[in-house]
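Hypothesis: this fold can be encoded by more than one sequence.
Test: take the C-alpha cells below, design a sequence, compare later.
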C-alpha cells in the first residue's frame, strides 16, 4: 500500500507520470484538473507536503490521500431535515501524507503553523480536545469508525494508529466544508492504515458517508450529511443531488458554457462555541417544528402520524393525501416566535421535558431558549420551500434551463436571509454585487453566518465578473488593499471524490 517516498516525489515532479507513463496520480487527476497549471498547483503542494512529512517522521514509505471541499449550489440546511441538497466537490482539497504505525498512537501534524501537532491513543472512548481544536475532526472520524467496528465485534485494541501530515487549500471557516474534508480524510487514513477497504466501493462509501455524518457531531455541530457525502461521492464535471435517510446520490452534468465562481465574504464562520450555538439553533427549531406538526397531524387523524423530520411530510410516509398535508401544515404555525412554554403546552408536556427531548447539545447541556423566541413558521417555510427548489433546480439543469436555475439560486438566498436568518450584511452585499456583475444566480453557500457566496457565471463573462466583484466588494466595500485576490474569489471546477492515491494503482480503481 505504501510507496517509497522517492517514487512519489518523482511522480509529483513529472506531472503525475511514472516510468510506465501511468501512475496513481495521473489516473486520479485526469479529470477535473484539466489545465496543466491546475495540476502543477496541486503537485507542488503535495511535493512540499511529502517533504515536510518525511522531515518530521523520517518515513521511507508513505501513502497520500486527499479529500475535496465542496460548494453547495442549492439546498441549504435541508440535509438534516431529510430533504435533498445539490452540491459539487471542488478542485480544492485537504491532502495528507501518512504511514501506519505499529502501535495504537495517532500523531497528526499540519503544515499550517496555526494547527499545532496533536497525538492521541486509540481506545474505546476518545475524549475530545477543547471546542474548536482541529484535532477533534480527526478524533471524530476515528471514534466514529471505532464505534462502527465495535458493532461488528472488532474492538479498539485491534486497530493500528498512524502518523500523518496535513495540508489544505480550501479556505477555512468559509462554508466550503474544509472541516468535513478533514473528517473524511482522517477516516480514509484510518481505514487504509488498518487494511480496511470500506471506501473502495460505491456502497461502502455511502455507508461511510452516513456514519461520518453522525460521527462529526463529536465536534459539537448537529449538521446533516451533505458535506461528507459529497466529499466521498463527488464526480468531476458534475453536481450531485444527494437525498437522505437513506443516503443516495445522483450526478448531473454541469452546463458547458458556465462557471461556478466562489467569493469569500471574508466574514469568518469559525466553529467557536458561540458559532456552534448559532448553527445548532436551526436543527433544534426544525425538530421542534416537526414535533408540533406531529402533534397536530396525530390529533387530526386520531392516530400516531410518523413525523420526526420536516422532510417526513410526504404522502407515502404519512398515508395522508398531499393536498391535506399542505393544508394542515400550512396553517399549523403562527408567524410570531414561540416560547418554550408555548411549545410544551402544544405538545402536552412540561417545558423541561420538551427541552430534554429537543434542545440538547452534544455534551448533554440544554440549549438556552433564544431571546427572540423559536421561529418555527419561518424555519418550516424555508426548509420545505428550499427542498422544492432543489428538485426544480436539478430539473432545470438537466433540461438546460440555466436562467431558471439561476433564479432558483437567487430565491434560495432570499429565503436563507429572511426566513432562515443565516446571512449577514456582507454576504447580502456580496450576492447583490455578484448579480450586478453578471451572475445568472448568486447566493450564500454552506452553513452561513459568513463564509462564501457562490455564483453561476457565463464562461465568457468570468473575467469581467471577477474584476468587478474585486473592485466593488473587496476594494470599495471592504476597503481592502490586497495586491492579490485569487485566494478570495476563484472559479471552481467540479472534481472527483476523496481517495487514497496509493490504492488506485493497486486496485485499478475506477474513479
Ligand atoms: C453545514 C453542515 C451541513 C449543512 C450545511 C447547510 O455545512 O455541515 O450538513 O447542514 O451546513 O446546508
Amino acid at each position: 500500500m505504501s510507496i517509497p517516498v522517492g517514487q512519489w516525489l518523482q511522480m509529483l515532479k513529472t506531472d503525475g507520470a511514472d516510468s510506465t507513463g501511468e501512475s496513481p496520480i495521473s489516473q486520479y487527476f485526469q479529470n477535473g484538473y484539466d489545465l496543466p497549471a491546475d495540476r502543477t498547483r496541486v503537485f507542488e503542494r503535495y511535493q512540499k507536503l511529502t517533504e515536510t512529512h518525511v522531515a518530521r517522521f523520517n518515513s521511507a514509505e508513505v501513502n497520500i490521500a486527499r479529500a475535496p471541499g465542496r460548494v453547495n449550489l442549492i439546498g441549504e440546511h435541508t440535509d438534516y431535515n431529510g430533504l435533498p441538497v445539490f452540491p459539487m466537490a471542488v478542485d480544492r482539497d485537504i491532502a495528507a501524507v501518512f504511514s501506519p504505525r505499529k502501535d495504537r498512537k495517532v500523531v497528526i501534524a499540519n503544515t499550517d503553523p496555526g494547527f499545532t501537532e496533536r497525538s492521541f491513543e486509540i481506545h474505546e472512548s476518545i475524549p475530545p480536545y477543547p471546542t474548536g481544536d482541529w484535532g477533534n475532526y480527526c478524533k471524530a472520524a476515528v471514534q466514529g469508525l471505532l464505534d462502527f467496528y465495535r458493532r461488528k465485534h472488532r474492538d479498539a485494541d485491534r486497530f493500528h494508529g498512524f502518523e500523518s501530515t496535513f495540508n489544505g487549500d480550501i479556505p477555512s471557516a468559509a462554508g466550503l466544508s474544509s472541516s468535513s474534508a478533514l473528517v473524511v480524510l482522517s477516516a480514509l487514513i484510518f481505514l487504509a492504515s488498518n487494511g480496511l477497504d470500506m471506501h473502495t466501493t460505491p456502497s461502502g462509501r455511502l455507508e461511510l458517508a452516513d456514519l461520518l455524518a453522525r460521527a462529526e457531531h463529536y465536534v459539537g455541530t448537529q449538521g446533516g450529511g451533505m458535506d461528507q457525502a459529497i466529499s466521498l461521492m463527488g464526480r468531476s464535471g458534475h453536481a450531485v443531488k444527494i437525498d437522505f435517510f437513506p443516503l443516495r446520490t445522483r450526478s448531473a452534468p454541469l452546463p458547458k458554457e458556465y462557471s461556478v465562481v466562489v467569493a469569500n465574504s471574508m466574514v469568518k464562520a469559525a466553529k467557536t462555541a458561540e458559532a456552534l450555538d448559532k448553527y445548532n439553533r436551526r436543527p433544534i427549531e426544525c425538530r421542534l417544528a416537526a414535533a408540533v406538526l406531529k402533534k397536530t397531524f396525530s390529533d387530526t387523524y386520531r392516530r400516531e402520524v410518523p413525523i420526526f423530520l420536516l422532510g417526513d411530510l410526504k404522502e407515502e410516509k404519512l398515508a395522508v393525501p398531499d393536498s391535506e398535508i399542505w393544508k394542515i401544515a400550512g396553517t399549523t404555525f403562527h408567524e410570531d416566535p414561540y416560547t418554550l412554554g408555548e411549545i410544551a403546552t402544544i405538545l402536552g408536556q412540561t417545558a423541561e421535558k420538551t427541552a430534554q427531548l429537543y434542545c440538547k447539545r452534544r455534551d448533554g447541556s440544554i440549549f438556552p431558549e433564544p431571546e427572540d423566541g423559536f421561529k418555527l413558521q419561518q424555519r418550516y417555510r424555508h426548509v420545505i420551500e428550499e427542498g422544492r427548489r432543489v428538485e426544480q433546480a436539478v430539473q432545470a439543469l438537466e433540461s438546460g434551463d440555466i436562467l431558471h436555475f439561476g433564479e432558483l439560486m437567487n430565491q434560495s438566498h432570499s429565503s436563507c436571509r429572511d426566513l432562515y436568518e443565516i446571512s449577514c450584511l456582507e454576504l447580502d452585499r456580496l450576492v447583490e454585487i455578484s448579480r450586478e456583475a453578471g451572475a445568472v444566480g448568486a447566493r450564500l453557500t454552506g452553513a452561513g453566518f459568513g463564509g462564501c457566496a457562490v455564483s453561476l457565471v457565463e464562461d465568457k463573462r468570468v473575467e469581467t465578473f471577477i474584476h468587478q466583484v474585486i473592485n466593488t466588494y473587496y476594494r470599495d466595500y471592504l476597503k481592502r488593499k490586497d495586491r492579490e485576490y485569487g485566494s478570495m474569489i476563484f472559479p471552481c471546477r467540479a472534481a472527483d471524490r476523496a481517495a487514497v492515491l496509493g490504492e488506485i494503482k493497486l486496485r485499478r480503481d475506477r474513479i
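Residues 273-301 form the longest helix (29 residues). The pocket of alpha-D-galactopyranose is lined by residues 76-77, 79-80, 177, 223-224, 226-227, 446-447 (CB under 6 Å).
Hypothesis status: open.
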